[in-house]
Amino acid sequence: MKKVSVSFTLNGDPVTAEVPVTWSLLKTLREYFELTGAKEGCGVGECGACTVIVDGDAVNACLYPVFEAEGKSVMTIEGIAGEDGTLHPIQTAFLENNGVQCGYCTSGMIMSAKALLDQNQGPMEDEIRTSIAGNFCRCTGYVQIVEAIEMAAREME
Amino acid sequence: MSDHLFVGKSIPRTIEADKVTGKAVYIDDMKRPGMLYGKILYSKYAHATIKSIDTSKAKKLTGVRAILTGQDIPDVRVGFLRDQTVLKKDTVRQFRDEVAAVAAVTPEIAAEARDLIEVEYEELPAVFDPFEAMKEEAPLVHEVDARGRPVKNNILPLPWKFEAGDIEQGRKDSAYITTDNVSTTWVNQCCMGTSGCVAEFDNSNNLTLYNQTNVIFGHIGRITEYFSQIGLKGKKIRVVNAIVGGSFGTKLDTDIYEFISIQLALKTRKPVKILFDREEEFRALPPRQPAVFTIEQGCDKEGRLTFRKCEAILDNGAYTSWGATTPSVMIMPMSSLYRVPNVLYKATCVYTNNIYCQAMRGYGNPQATFAVETSMDTLAEKAGIDPAEFRMINRNRSGDETPMRLKITSCGFEECINSVKEKLNWDEKKGKQKGRGLGMASLIHVAGGARVTRSDGHGMMVKVDEYGHVDVIESGTDQGQGSPTVITQIVAESLGVRPEDVFLTFGDTALALWDAGTHASRHTFMAGNAAVRACAKAKHQILDMAVEHMPKIIKGGFKRKKRKDPDFVEPELDYGLIADPENLDIRDRMVFPKKDPDHPYFRIPVSQVLRQGLLGSGESKVVVAEAFYDPPTEMLDRELKGNLSKTYAFGTTGVEVEVDEQTGEVKILNLVAAHDVGKAMNPTLLLGQIYGAAYTGVGYGLTEEIKVVNGKVMNPGFRDYQMLTAMDVVPIEPVIVEPVDEDGPYGAKGVGEPGLVPTAPAIANAIYDAIGVRIRDLPITPEKVLAALKEKG
Q: What Rg value do the Cα atoms of chain A yield, rounded?
């Protein structure tokens, strides 16, 4: 299969991937870079488990053609903690407030929340809910996820 | 007030940090050296004869390593009633029938090869309605039973019939009687992580199955039986769980895809992974069992229930998994939700050419409770009694033995009903608002195990090292419910260490002691009780070491002090204080005499004792303890009676709704979920269980439905299957009722499933209060509301 060479910034580092031209960003992250935090919950952009941040925006990596990432900055769940392992305030808040249960949606959920909080430091509840409207969760009923994001927003102020 | 350091506290889920950093390894993320990927070809018809299968084109594809059809593997029957084979050879009976399977070096090649397989079918007459399927002239879904004997009809040989008391006498004692026809439909468990496993054989054909089951030993039992019929008798099977991306009942049975991955691995001698895509998850995963009920109840003039009679018809689909056993759980609410002296319950499971069903959170209880609680409301109305008062009159009480012989011990039912009334302002608002209404429904559920297999035990092993680190070998499964944290709290509390000293290993049959499974809301109760017992033994071993070594450690300290300071005078101490393990305790990493916990010399770190005891000269020992907790409960007898759980959970959900009579839309203004939990082990995690279950219950009540037309799933994706999202705001107000349970670990009872059970009927009852129409068929869609309003006129 025809391959494509794509260079972009991944979690702060410059990288180049040589992958089949049909590959999505999600497949490239998971298979080429072995960053398996983003998950394929549906593969058709409906569940948000694959959410990563590209140039500041939360995107469904399963629908994002990898060649579209050329020259851009991609941030995944693996890249948001400090270099010494200190968790990002959103990660801490999800643990503290039980925003995690089975955890399958969590990577995507946190990345959607991060995209929001990076742009909006004091979001209202409906803004938080809108930011994760495309991130499905079966375990939590979203209540403690929303609370966790509120907690993180206060922490990040 | 208890003086617990960790139990009862909202300890964060720090132990699960891998889930917020992307490091947690789910089955999706698991790779084994040389691993191949399997794909399954499903049937194109609901009922057909397979005339031929041509795999020649698929075989030519580069990267294909194996293609299997029913002709290639032993024709062995599997499943609860042994009514299907792994790959179907002659006949398909539903759209999800597995016809062929491929293993290839990538999932894409496997899928391409699958699509190249050509199957010629000859369509057969099919039946999709259980009532039609019961008729004499209906096409037979199965021509023969598991033993090859011809069958006469489509009714399963599972005569679920429960009888207690005398229905006719109950009728005579009744002042009021109502009858309701109630029905529920298929819903998907919607685990965010899809189904999947990796099967791998060693050179001697021993199997390791990387999996995500919540019944690790159940898998071994079923696969062992399968092995005995395919020439692998006596081979060792090890089940190792990945992190589980949601379960909700889906990981209870051994599914056909698991047997297929085993066959592909056997054929290719390579590890083979099968991972469902989302469409498969909707089409090929057994969903919640639907049921149709006719329920009749009576009460006397004072509102006391006199009898309950219910007949249920269950569309079993083409094969049998746990769906067909949901009537055994339905018996619990049918016989024991509220005091009712005379009960008759019959359930008939019928084969059709629809999808077949399995467990989902609540396991039959949500369906049956929808019937019972609908009937409670109609009967209360007929008797002219407020529905809350009616429920209060008939509530279960501590000390009751129900017609099913359930022994009710701790019971916070009364407080649950009262809390809901108070929070919803029931007496002020009920029946007095136009377009808005209040409704409630309650539940009973097993909360102290569920003896559905002969042993309902849970084994746990605890090992303490010389640093005071504790390894806990957990035989259960963490499906997201928070067990790693709760069990850590119990171990830290019971052993006298801190949560950060506790390390859990879940779900590996090679390490774990036997467990009946993490189902039936049993894990905190069962594993907690096992942990308390294992830790008591380990603690005793440590205290024995303390008696042996503490004097040496303390005197050694004095010697060192004296070397540094010649003027130091060794104090005269009463070593009798630490001469008996019974007089010592461990708490927060310190050993001390119970009589004098702050003793200036006899309070020392437990790690010092452990280093001496484990690594010191002389007779060093290990600290390792196991416990197997199997409560004194009963399996159901021939009459389907027996006290199958050590304790029971009660709860009441109340909702206030607003119904738009123009659009039929139902909005939930407030949902109060009052739950008798025994003891809140970790309040924040407990709330997570209640919120999540209530949300799924709202979906069950209002939106969720697998649309099955002539056996085919028409909405196999999230876009068309209406699971609630973050935009569907449901204000939930949990109320925690804590009638500490004397049999529970630190007083706790199970809570995983209860929150879902009464939600849908509470909504239905509130809709009736709001607009005067009663919807008896789930989900309560706007179309059904409008149709009912139109009919009412």
A: 15
